[in-house]
From TrEMBL:
PANTHER family: GANGLIOSIDE INDUCED DIFFERENTIATION ASSOCIATED PROTEIN 2-RELATED, MACRO DOMAIN-CONTAINING PROTEIN. It is an enzyme of class 3 (hydrolase). This is O-acetyl-ADP-ribose deacetylase. Residues 1-170 form the Macro domain. Keywords: Hydrolase. GO terms for molecular function: O-acetyl-ADP-ribose deacetylase activity. Pfam families: Macro. It comes from Streptomyces monticola.
């Protein structure tokens, strides 16, 4: 059974869910956009967990399309699931890598026992993915991925992103 899809316009760091998905960079050590906001609001516990991951299995960082979980620190969630989206490229089809971000995040959520998960529009910010296409890939992938997650909440920062996702969910 596929999860209920809901849309929220606002700040993903304000959501109360089991897991918040972070559009991370491969270093796992924080960055700009959603990644920076999650690290700032979540506090040093998230960065400390990320550093432990880098010291272990993820010494070279997290590969594009993959996902891994840490504590959520001070966020109103149990976990942060970090996923590395692909940068958009006109001359190369990277849609499968973007879809993998959603599938792998849901796989990690299932392993954790998370029932509610908040996603940003992965790769649609500084990574340059066109919003309408990012929404299509996100919604289709979540709908077609077998998961025990009961609710997927797409938390969208602005009117344009919200409208793009709303058009796909309708």
């Amino acid at each position: 059974m596929s999860p209920t899809l809901t849309l929220v316009q606002g700040d993903i760091t304000q959501e109360s869910v089991d897991a918040i998905v972070n559009a991370a960079n491969s270093s796992l050590l924080g960055g700009g956009g959603v990644d920076g906001a999650i690290h700032r609001r979540g506090g040093p516990e998230i960065l400390a967990d990320c550093r432990r991951l880098r010291a272990g299995h993820y010494g070279k960082g997290l590969a594009t399309g993959q996902a891994v979980a840490t504590t959520a620190g001070r966020l109103d969630a149990r976990w942060v699931i970090h996923t590395v989206g692909p940068r958009y490229a006109r001359d190369e089809d990277r849609a499968e890598l973007l879809a993998s971000c959603y599938r792998q995040s849901l796989r990690v959520a299932d392993e954790l026992g998370a029932r509610t998960v908040a996603f940003p529009a992965v790769s649609a910010g500084i990574y340059g993915w066109p919003m309408e296409d990012a929404a299509r890939i996100a919604v289709e992938t979540v709908r077609n991925t077998e998961t025990a997650v009961e609710e997927v909440r797409f938390v969208l920062f602005d009117d344009r992103a919200y409208a793009a996702f709303a058009a796909r969910i309708a």
